[in-house]
Every structure is written in structure tokens, then in C-alpha cells.
Design brief:
The complex is a heterodimer of chains A (218) and B (102). Chain A has helices spanning 6-33, 38-47, 51-62, 67-78, 81-88, 96-103, 108-113, 123-147, 162-171, 178-194, 202-207. By secondary structure, chain A is mainly alpha-helical. Chain B has 102 residues and is mainly α. The longest helix of chain B is centred in the N-terminal third of the chain and has 24 residues, at 3-26. The chains are: A mainly alpha (218), B mainly alpha (102).
Chain lengths: 218, 102
């Protein structure tokens, strides 16, 4: 199968870029009301680049929940990036600095669109998608942190429903085999059971254990 | 250093490390044979979990709201073999319309 192009990754993730911008803006607003300065909000988006962890950290600080709780919550929310990062490792080539920089473009959405029809991940699709999402997220944050409450709530535009729709659309072509379907059902079930009883982030990282049904003896 | 900056630096460092761990330590080499089966199933497992948590997720609770209508619209669009853009727009637009009225 021919390798993907950067442009294809960018095109596939483009509809989500708008939602990323809008949620970047709402993160900027939240950060501002939680006592972050504009620079602090933008620096966090540029260095962390992971929406749910940023929302959690800012809202905990805003509620005077303490530094440690904010860091723990954000770590749990980002724990899923460890298995995601390992799953993509073979496609990152070149020197260590390049691999480090390119790996920072991994977010749920860029990872999800970077899987080709043959099941392999594609570095160019990931980088193309990441280079769309990253500036959307940062400029969104800047607009939110500076313009503040003047903006529309992204939920009123239904943009919070755009993300699960993307993930579902990308899931469907992947459950062609019985084993993949079993992993999806099991992963979804683990997340559903843990959702009401564990801190945010735990249901997702625990669901990744469903892939162990593919274990074969070495 | 202010509390805010401590959190920004700590969370940023942790996230950079989590995203980089695979590419930096294992980059460019094929994964061991017995792991490829597992890794191939990570995407369906995680994508399903992301759908569940993003449609039903609340503050440590299950929340049933307009997002479910968006998911239903996405399913209909997928059954009609609509392109990705249409699926995403159908979900967002239907959720927005429901929120206008409730």
C-alpha cells in the first residue's frame, strides 16, 4: 500500500480542526477564569497539547483544588498516550530529536486518522493531521484567553458531539475481523463500567487492556 | 514559581514524555512479533472507549444528554455511507438543534 501524504492527513482531520479551535477557545476562557494569564494559558496549550488534561488541570486550580490534584488528574487523563505512543513507535524514523518532536503531534484525533485501511499507522497522515490541529488549538486558546466570555459556548454549537462522531466513524472500518470487534466491544464495556466509579481518564486507559485478547505466546 | 506555572511545567513535561516514549525508545524498529497482535487491537479498543466516554461522560457519572442524539445522527450517516465530514457535521448540527429546544 502506498504511503499516505501529509495533505491527506490534514484533509481527514480538517472538520475536527474547527471543533479543536472552538474548544481551544473555551479552554482559554476557563484558564482565564481559573487565574491563568494569557501567556500561561497559551504556553500550556503549546506544551501539553492535550485537551481533556488541560481542562482538568485548569478547573482544579480554579477551584483551589491544589497543585498535586491538578497534576494527578492530568496525568491520569494522559496515561492513554503511553500505549498509543508505543503502538505508533515503528513508523517514527530519523534521529531522536525528530522522533521526539514529531511524537508531540500525537493526540487522539491525529492518531485515529493516521491508521490506513490496511491497519498500519502512517507517519505522514499523523504529522499532516497534527499540523492542522496544533495551530487550531493554540490560536483557539489565545482567542479564548484574550476575548474571554464574548465567545459562543462550543457545546451550544454541538461541537462536543463532533469528537465521538469522528471516533465512531474511524472505528467502523476497523472492526472487520471478529477479534477486532471483540476488542472494541470489550474496550467500550470497560469504559462504560468504570465511567461512574473512577476518576476521569482511568476508563480510557483501562479499556486499552482489551487489546490483550490479541496476545500470542512469544 | 506560582502554582499555575508548577502545574504547567509538570503536566507539560509528563505529557511530552508520555507521547514520546514509544517513538524515542522504540522508534523505527518493528515491534516484537508477539506484540503486533496486541497493538493491532489497541485502536478498536481505545476508539470504542473514546466514543463511550465522550458521549456519556460526566463528572464521575454517566450523563444522558443531547450528545446521544448526535451519536444517533452519526450512526445514520454512517449507515448511509456518508463521508467523514458529513458524519461529523450531522452529529454536531443535530446536537445543537436539540439543545436549542431543551
Amino acid at each position: 500500500m502506498t504511503p499516505g501524504r501529509y495533505r491527506d492527513g490534514a484533509r481527514r482531520v480538517a472538520p475536527i480542526g474547527i471543533a479543536a479551535f472552538a474548544f481551544g477557545a473555551s479552554y482559554g476562557v476557563l484558564a482565564q477564569t481559573s487565574g491563568f494569564g494569557s501567556v500561561e494559558a497559551i504556553v500550556m496549550s503549546a506544551t501539553t497539547f492535550a485537551g481533556s488534561a488541560q481542562f482538568a488541570a485548569a478547573s482544579i486550580l480554579g477551584a483551589a483544588g491544589g497543585v498535586v490534584s491538578a497534576i494527578v488528574a492530568a496525568t491520569l487523563l494522559n496515561a492513554r498516550y503511553a500505549p498509543i505512543s508505543v503502538s505508533m513507535a515503528p513508523v517514527f524514523t530519523g534521529g531522536v530529536v525528530r522522533r521526539l518532536l514529531e511524537s508531540q503531534l500525537i493526540v487522539d484525533e491525529s492518531w485515529a486518522v493516521s491508521r490506513r485501511a490496511d491497519g498500519a499507522f502512517d507517519r505522514r497522515l499523523l504529522v499532516g493531521a497534527g499540523l492542522v490541529l496544533y495551530p487550531c488549538w493554540i490560536t483557539g486558546t489565545a482567542v479564548g484567553a484574550i476575548a474571554g466570555d464574548a465567545l459562543a459556548d462550543p457545546a451550544s454549537l454541538g461541537l462536543d458531539a463532533a469528537f465521538p462522531a469522528l471516533f465512531l466513524a474511524l472505528l467502523v472500518p476497523q472492526v472487520r475481523s471478529r477479534q477486532a470487534l471483540a476488542a472494541a466491544v470489550l474496550g467500550g464495556a470497560i469504559a462504560l463500567v468504570l465511567l461512574p466509579i473512577t476518576p476521569a481518564g482511568v476508563p480510557i486507559v483501562a479499556a486499552s487492556a482489551a487489546c490483550l485478547i490479541g496476545w500470542r505466546k512469544p | 514559581m506560582s502554582e499555575t506555572w508548577i502545574v504547567i511545567v509538570a503536566v507539560g513535561t509528563m505529557t511530552v514524555a508520555l507521547k514520546a516514549v514509544g517513538p524515542v525508545l522504540l522508534g523505527g524498529k518493528p515491534l516484537p512479533e508477539h506484540l503486533t497482535g496486541i497493538v493491532g487491537l489497541l485502536a478498536p479498543a481505545l476508539l470504542a472507549a473514546l466514543v463511550v466516554t465522550q458521549v456519556l461522560g460526566g463528572d464521575e457519572e454517566i450523563v444522558l444528554d443531547a450528545r446521544l442524539v448526535g451519536l444517533a445522527a452519526a450512526i445514520v450517516a454512517l449507515l448511509l455511507r456518508a463521508p467523514l465530514l458529513v458524519v461529523v457535521i450531522a452529529a454536531a448540527a443535530s446536537t445543537a438543534v436539540v439543545r436549542l429546544f431543551i
